Amino acid sequence: MNKNGSVVTAPATPSSSCRSTSISGVSGVTSPNINLFQEIVIRLMLFAFYFYFEWKEAFVRVIHPEEMWLYKNPISPSYVPLTLLYPAVFGLVGLVIIGYFVRSRDFHDFRSAWLGFSLACTLNGALTDVIKVAVGRPRPDFFQRCFPDGQMNEDMVCTGDPWTVKDGRKSFPSGHSSFSFAALGFLSWYLFAKLHVFTERGRGQTWRLLAAGGPLFAALMVSISRTCDYHHHWQDVTVGSLIGLTVGYLSYRQYYPPIGSRHCFVPYGTEVISPNSNRKHVPKRDEVPDESESDTKTLLEGEDKDSKWT
Sorted alphabetically, which PANTHER family does this protein's record hold (predicted)? Predict the structure, then answer.
């Protein structure tokens, strides 16, 4: 990147004063080219997988009368309904990614961000719904869903609305929690990198940590709300959050270096121009060695590049 933050592409003819390298996970190895059509097809397949299991009947787990107290909480509306959650999350992520693209004009980063985010959402949705159907754990308000008149029969046969009962058997893990941590977790990793929260450039600046960690806190509050409105048990929320957090991080790392890397703010495969001149021309802030970049620091020696957001 130049001093304004734009990505600099190496010239076709190498010169004696500079050399071009590519950022990758292993020193000296360039990330393979991305087959965009294949990536889109895979995401569509994951979404179809999610959609199929979203409508599929869950495993009917035997509920003994003596454990019914676990499922006798009152029915209440979601504190964070999907009609609010989806627009808020997609809108926020889109605003950040598009905003950075407008400032940097870096199409490679723009594409990588959307590929990573879409992978996090579709993969998380597929995994979460498969587990929901396989486990079939009743929700905390299942008794009211199953017996809306409050009268439980000996055979434990539900008399409530079939759709409400079917949804009532999909408590584990929490879909709100996994989606929030997958999507907003991805956004936090993205901001951690763009704001250099864990590199020598941004460490110790609290505003960066708070700004980048904000989406994770929002995901945490969404998860907690699912126990407050009696739609999930605490175990559902805990496991769902861990699934989402893991998927979000793995999806991010498919396209970006570690958040502690000196070049964490640019995706894999970005061309970087490093001068062979004396290190005295490198800004002082870049003279500090990046201990977290042990696998690529020899490849990426030279002038560090400025991020648009720093």
Answer: LIPID PHOSPHATE PHOSPHATASE (PTHR10165), RE23632P (PTHR10165:SF35)
Q: Where are the domains of the chain?
A: 75-136+169-254
Angle, CA 268 vertex, CA 263 and CA 271 arms, to 5°: 75
Catalytic annotation, pick one of 176, 196, 231, 263 = 176
Name the catalytic one among 196, 232, 233, 263.
Answer: 232
For residues 174 and 226, is the Cβ–Cβ distance under 8 A? yes
pLDDT in tens, 171-222: 999 999 999 999 999 999 999 999 999 998 888 999 999 999 999 999 999 9
Sign, CA dihedral 221-222-224-225, equals: positive
176 catalytically annotated: yes
Helices (H), 74-106: 82-104
| Greatest pairwise CA separation for the chain in angstroms | 86
Q: What pTM was estimated for this model as a whole?
A: 0.80
Whether 263 is catalytic is no
